[in-house]
Amino acid sequence: MYALHQAVRAIRGNWVASVATITTMTLSLTILAGFSLLSLNLNRVLATLQGELEVTVFLHDGADGGRLLETVRSWPEVARSEYVGKDRNLAALVVDIPSLATAAQLVANPLQDTLELRLIDPGQTAFVRTRLEALPGVADVEDGSEAVETFLAIADALRVVGSILIVVLLSSALFAIVNSIRAAITAREDEIEVQRLVGATQTFIRAPFLIEGILLGLFSAVITLALTVPGYQFVVTRLALQLPFVPFVRDPLLLAQVSLLLTLLALMVGLVGSAISVSQHLRERR
Amino acid sequence: MRFVVEFRHVTKTYARTHTHALKNVDFLIRKGEFVYFTGHSGAGKSTLLSLVLRRITPSEGAVAIAGQDLALLRESQLPLLRRRIGMVFQDHRLLPKLSSLDNLTFALRATGYRGNYEQRALGALRQVGLAHKRKAYPIELSLGEQQRIAIARALVTDPPLLLCDEPTGNLDPDTSWEILELLNDVNIKGTTVIVATHSRDLVDRLKRRTMVLRSGELVRDDDRGGYSL
How many CB pairs lie under 8 A apart between chains A and B? Predict the structure, then answer.
């Protein structure tokens, strides 16, 4: 309790340094939170895309669709499979593009019979495609893997940029804490000297500074969440109206987890930063 | 334990400046003694006190307090050693933003004292005759009063050993004598007192065992007291 009281006193007494530290940390954490939410949304879009990925197998005229269907159903990678005759394919096309209805009556059906497959793991698409192409009666295989690969590449790039950004931002937050605690130690040098002389333990001397670091982290996290959570909800609500097909992350539990992680990260940065400062500047010289 | 402080062939060299602060210093101080260490500035008096507090360690030889070799003390045991040693400085080192009473309770709190801080601190202030100044801040006190408060702070944890580094260095002769009388009273009540001073008057006025240091060497150890370098 005494250490907490001392920590609060130090934050108030050294308020310029404290405000500077909290501002730096809040900025870093806000950018970090923004990146995390962006990454979460991108992953969600990717997962949805992958989940909806279908493999279409075009068959030669006269190919035995029933037998081929039996063959692919026996493969462990296949979750669902369906035979679609060329008449059904044409009907579906006409539903999508009604202007083709007249043309469809004038010429013979140019479409092919197909097999529609959905895989258990979309990551197996390339492997399954190779197997399908080797089957007799298969004319062509189409899948949406190119679009997914583009998304995956974007997500990977984002992950790399995010990781670099996390290191840079957390380092700046850490140094802000280190400096703030160093200033607090310098301001209380006389007190520390007296404490040492009368026989205070290292824990007693160090505790207020460690608590100060944790408090600075906590204040920064609270401000960050106060800015980020309503800000994100506002942006997502607006975007969802414009882009209704994008599955934005709005799950309160998931957002609570992100908030909790961010708070723990801020507390950790506060504790580690103050521990570094304390170990550097409160070492007894001999 | 018969000997409170033991120095066995202690040499202290500051490696960075190649200064030999103490050279082969050897002495014993018994429980309840009042001892002066005298000598000119730079003779090694402050180094000697720092060794007793284990703020520094000897380059050669050994220092023991109450039979405990300080070289064998772990870092975590240092606070326990220092709780048994009161320390008074020439510049008193009171905390300017705390009242007299709070300067004492601050020290008590730091040592993990579990009783009533204020009562104990007030007792120490009474011991130095300044209970009526408990609410005064250091700046509101005379130099002599500040030094008395510093002595009260050193005594508030009831240490068996009191170290004073030039306790009258900033004081006029009359106030210096008052401080010395106070230290003598403390000694009479059983506390071992070690005073490092270069004040000839002080040593000659209250004659006690005197050890004279010259350029780091212990050149005289006289039970009859008196300055005479």
Answer: 56
- Cα–Cα nearest to A31, from A153, A151, A152, A172: A172
Check pLDDT > 70 for residue A169: yes
Give A189's contacts in chain B (Cβ within 8 Å): none
Q: Which CATH architecture best describes the domain B1-76+162-167+194-223?
A: 3-Layer(aba) Sandwich (3.40)
The residue of chain A nearest to residue B53, with distances taken between CA atoms, is A197
Cβ-defined contact of A194 to B93 (cutoff 8 Å): yes
Residues in chain A: 286
Domains and CATH numbers, chain A: 2-49+149-281 (no CATH), 54-143 (3.30.70.3040)
Band the pLDDT of A145: cuts 50, 70, 90.
confident
Q: Render pLDDT for A170-198 as a digit per residue (tens, 0 to 9).
A: 898 899 899 888 888 888 888 898 888 88
The interface pTM score, or ipTM, of the predicted complex is 0.83
- List strands edge to edge, sheet with B19-30: B19-30, B3-14, B60-65, B68-69
d(CA A238, CA A208): 45
Taking the CB of residue B206, how many other CB atoms lie within 10 A of it?
Answer: 17
All structural domains of chain B with their residue ranges: 1-76+162-167+194-223
Nearest CA to A274 out of A198, A155, A191, A179 is that of: A179
Of A190, A201, A205, the CB nearest to B95: A190
